[in-house]
Design a protein that fits this description.
60% helix, globular, Non-ribosomal Peptide Synthetase Peptidyl Carrier Protein, Chain A
Length: 84
């Protein structure tokens, strides 16, 4: 089964931000609220990942609530791929 690398997910995240004339910072420690990455943006990113994997990601609300930084998003997507 194919997996998407962390760098590929980061590039997808940057694309979502570029569409809103925003820039994804280099630091994975950057809080999402500082860069304006919202839940709708996460949903768009998740859909892009699903399209690339041709698999549905299964995640729950409690897991989403723990996401605070760029790195948290990348870690979360990495974990979801392990369950495929």
């Amino acid at each position: 089964m194919a997996q998407i690398s962390r760098d590929q997910v980061k590039e997808m995240m940057a694309e979502v931000m570029r569409r809103q004339n925003k820039v994804l910072p280099e630091s994975e420690e950057t809080p999402l609220d500082e860069i304006g990455f919202r839940s709708l943006d996460f949903s768009e990113l998740a859909l892009r990942v699903e399209d690339e994997l041709d698999e549905e990601l299964n995640f729950d609300a409690p897991g989403l609530r723990s996401i605070r930084t760029v790195g948290d998003v990348l870690d979360f997507i990495d974990e979801l791929q392990k369950d495929l």
